[in-house]
Specification:
The complex is a heterodimer. By secondary structure, chain A is of the alpha/beta class. In chain A, the strands form three sheets. Chain A has a seven-stranded antiparallel beta sheet. A seven-stranded mixed beta sheet of chain A has the order 11-10-9-8-12-13-16, with helices on both faces. Chain A has a two-stranded antiparallel ribbon with strand order 14-15. Chain A is built from nine helices and 16 strands. Chain A folds into two domains: 112 residues, Beta Barrel (Elongation Factor Tu (Ef-tu), domain 3); 111 residues, 3-Layer(aba) Sandwich (Rossmann fold), CATH 3.40.50.80. By secondary structure, chain B is an alpha/beta fold. Chain B has a five-stranded parallel beta sheet with strand order 3-2-1-4-16. Chain B has a five-stranded parallel beta sheet with strand order 6-14-7-8-9. In chain B, strands 10, 11, 12 and 13 form a four-stranded antiparallel beta sheet that branches. Chain B folds into three domains: 132 residues, Orthogonal Bundle (Fumarate Reductase Iron-sulfur Protein, Chain B, domain 2), CATH 1.10.1060.10; 159 residues, FAD/NAD(P)-binding domain (3-Layer(bba) Sandwich), CATH 3.50.50.60; 157 residues, 3-Layer(bba) Sandwich (FAD/NAD(P)-binding domain), CATH 3.50.50.60. In chain B, β11 and β12 form a beta hairpin. The chains are: A alpha/beta, B alpha/beta. At the A-B interface, α1, β7, β14, α8 and α9 of A face β5 and α13 of B.
Chain lengths: 293, 469
């Protein structure tokens, strides 16, 4: 069982939880993720990225947005509650520039929405390996930024905030400063994590500059160990499993349209399940109870 | 009884649910013998002194021995004989392809010139196991005194269950590591409830716990902990790798990444393990295709096509490039699939999957085949007939053409040798790997196909595991 040690609501629909998972906290590396269940009888298995970990305390930090049935139910849990299943760390760790004899360089990290959460350990490691790290964070508005302080601690002056409405930082898309940086400097690598559409456009933005662009994909998964192939994507014309071959791939090689289509495969069912949970929550608010069946 | 009298005894049919009814429910199809039927069937055994049936059994059950006891009505005694060498009779009685194993060599079948008229060894085996389980009459298993040795078993499928039980009985401290939230491997994610009730698998897992086996679910060796760390830091004396064939193969044809195309593993895992068949209750969504094509001719293909029917498909086509004689599936499953309404498209193969322009399946283009000369597997090889293309109108395609070895453990274990196909290289005598670089420890492999009893057999070869270094 994985007990919830702390819980914080970061915005309307974004939550941060520290969850007991000593083995995952000890082994996890930047770029890896977990799969968890809120109900191990009839619940589903969902992948979530690891935002941080404290091996001494034996906890991992998860930041998630309530987008479907399972994340809605997860948000209902409180400190002291336990998750019945948490598996990880999964996926190949990020290859950190500057490690393994490679020369450090100038790296731009682009985090969109809660994509900043998985970027946090990656940016930390990049910085520790001696890279010059610039971080671009994007969100619809000021209230939706997560881990701003943590990212500022890594990037300092080189933190660029972008909002759709200009309520914080610059008004515009993350691709604007990304292009400017590529024009102005010799950028060695770009890492982009966020909504697929953002990653797609980051990859398109860097392509003319020939800058290596790594993206972290968040496809539908069940087991997370390569057994089902539900997470498959096409990279450079080859079928890859995100859970074991990824989650990070060369953004210039990913077939984004295919990935976006595949991610929508179960949309009607997902909406129905979400509605169902929302209705349960409404009813149970009256009853003062918890979510259940 | 004389052999002649035994030959005259009619083979006992297996009672089963009506095909029209069962195609729409998840309950077990084959209902099992009554005690009278089990006795009558066991009485058909000729008690050949050479015991030819035993050579077909991967775990070498003393088959005439247990049948003699069952024929006399001593089912507890029969089960005792089975359990001398087999740990999972309720499972194996249901899922082993007996017509290719024990029953293939049965003298009765040979005399009657029909393997289907062999003594129904599996059905009697199943009856003995079910009776003991259902009446709470299972005898406790004794464990040898503690040896002080620790064994790690990776995976919880049939091979791992068998290995874990054998090691526990030998007095070793066993920990079983399972990546999923539930134990049983292919027995829970792959084989459907209607063929193997999950309560039986659960019972076997509880049996392991009674033997003192520690079970760690949600633990993927290679990621949660490296295999070498188990040996070098966690004090395990030996590791059994029972991770099986867990990497689905695809056809490599156009359109395979369209929505509505699934590996059989995904299709069945959603339905079985994630309980998507309980619509409106389970959170894991299921793709409710109306017209489903299943590619392949093995047990998994049968399971997937019969699952599709149960989850509301109006048409289910099974597309297999050889003829029925070459199908690797159990005979009984083939019969059941046909009875339930699965349409067999034999000597046909998928050429490409057609899209609807919005990323979803709109049809399956197939080619007709004929049989040529025998290939390396000894089966006649299928040869495409040029220009024979035609299209099946389907909205779902399930690919059930087999699995390769899961690469996770080799990829995360330095010094572990794999062959070209990604299988861990072991000494064929001992099933042990080479010594991992610089260490005196070794790992063991057990990747037999889990559905044919070879899984338990591989698990079985590791009984004396920790003493054999």
């Amino acid at each position: 069982m994985n007990r919830i040690i702390s819980k914080k609501q970061l915005s309307d629909n974004v939550f941060r939880m520290d969850v007991e998972a000593p083995l995952v906290a000890r082994e996890r590396q930047p770029g890896q993720f977990v799969i968890l269940m809120v109900d191990d009888r009839l619940g589903e298995r969902i992948p979530l990225t690891i935002a941080d970990a404290d091996p001494a305390r034996g906890t991992v930090t998860l930041i998630f947005q309530t987008v479907g049935a399972t994340t809605l139910k997860l948000a209902q849990l409180n400190v002291g509650d336990a998750l019945p299943a948490l598996l990880g760390p999964l996926g190949r760790p990020t290859s950190i520039r500057g490690r393994n004899g490679e020369r450090p360089g100038r790296v731009v990290c682009v985090g969109g929405g809660i994509g900043v959460a998985p970027m946090h350990p990656i940016a930390q490691a990049l910085k520790a390996a001696g890279n010059d790290v610039t971080i671009i964070m994007g969100a619809r508005n000021k209230g939706l930024f997560v881990m701003e302080e943590e990212m500022r601690a890594i990037a300092g002056e080189n933190l660029v905030l972008m909002t759709d409405d200009g309520s914080s930082g610059r008004k515009g898309l993350v691709t604007d400063p990304l292009k400017e940086l590529c024009e102005r400097h010799a950028v060695d690598e770009v890492i982009a994590i966020g909504p697929p559409i953002m990653m797609k456009f980051c990859a398109l933005a860097t392509k003319p500059f020939g800058v290596k662009t790594t993206v972290s994909l968040n496809t539908i998964m069940i087991d997370g160990t390569g057994m089902c192939g539900g997470c498959r994507v096409s990279v450079g014309g080859e079928t890859k499993f995100v859970c074991v071959d990824g989650p990070e791939f060369d953004g210039h090689q990913v077939d984004w349209d295919l990935m976006l289509t595949r991610m929508a495969a179960f949309k009607p069912q997902e909406f129905a399940a979400k509605d169902h949970v929302c209705n349960l929550l409404k009813v149970e608010k009256w009853n003062g109870g918890k979510v259940g069946r | 009884m004389t052999p002649k009298e035994r030959m005259a005894l009619p083979p006992q049919e297996m009672p089963q649910q009506d095909p029209a009814v069962r195609a729409h429910n998840m309950n077990e199809v084959a209902l099992g013998y009554t005690a009278e039927m089990a006795k009558a069937e066991a009485s058909r055994c000729l008690q050949c002194p050479t015991k030819p049936c035993m050579q077909g059994c991967p775990v070498a059950i003393n088959i005439p021995g247990f049948l003699a006891k069952a024929a006399a009505g001593d089912f507890a005694g029969a089960l005792r004989v089975i359990k001398e060498t087999s740990l999972l009779p309720a499972v194996c009685g249901r899922v082993c392809p007996q017509e290719k194993q024990c029953q293939k060599f049965c003298t009765m079948g040979k005399l009657l010139k029909d393997v289907e008229k062999s003594v129904a060894i599996g059905r009697v085996e199943r009856f003995c196991a079910d009776l003991a389980r259902e009446t709470g009459a299972e005898e406790p298993v004794a464990c040898a005194p503690k040896t002080g040795r620790k064994v790690a078993v990776i995976g919880s499928g049939p091979a791992s269950i068998t290995c874990a039980a054998d090691c526990a009985k030998a007095g070793h401290a066993v920990t079983l590591f399972e990546a999923f939230h539930k134990c049983g491997g292919v027995l829970v994610y792959g084989i459907p409830e209607f063929r193997l009730p999950k309560a039986i698998v659960q019972h076997e897992i509880e049996g392991l716990e009674k033997l003192g086996v520690t079970i760690d679910t949600n633990y993927v060796v290679g990621r949660t902990r490296k295999l070498k760390d188990l040996l070098e830091k966690d004090g395990f004396d030996a590791v059994f790798v029972g991770t099986g064939a867990g990497l689905p193969k695809f056809m490599g044809i156009e359109g395979e990444n369209l929505n509505g195309v699934f590996s059989a593993n995904e299709y069945l895992t959603r339905a079985n393990l994630m309980k998507a068949y309980r619509e409106g209750q389970a959170d894991t969504p299921f793709w409710h295709g109306k017209k489903v094509a299943v590619l392949g001719g093995g047990n998994v293909a049968m399971d997937a096509s019969r699952m599709a029917l149960r989850l509301g498909a109006e048409k289910v086509y099974l597309v297999y490039r050889r003829s029925e004689a070459e199908m690797p599936a159990r005979r009984e499953e083939v019969h059941h699939a046909k009875e339930e309404g699965v349409e067999f498209h034999l000597l046909e193969n998928a050429k490409r999957i057609l899209g609807d322009g919005h990323g979803a399946v709109a049809g399956l283009e197939c080619l007709k085949y004929e049989l040529g000369a025998p290939d390396a597997s000894g089966r006649r090889s299928p040869v495409a007939i040029p220009g024979s293309e035609f299209t099946l109108d389907v909205d779902t395609v399930v690919v059930a053409v087999g699995n390769a070895s899961n690469p996770l453990i080799p990829a995360t274990t330095e010094g572990l040798e794999v062959n070209r196909r990604g299988n861990i290289v072991v000494n064929p005598e001992t099933n042990m790997t080479r010594r991992l670089r610089g260490r005196r420890h070794r790992a063991r492999r057990g990747d037999g196909h889990p559905r044919d009893g070879r899984g338990p057999a591989r698990g079985r070869r590791h009984q004396r595991l920790p003493h054999q270094r």
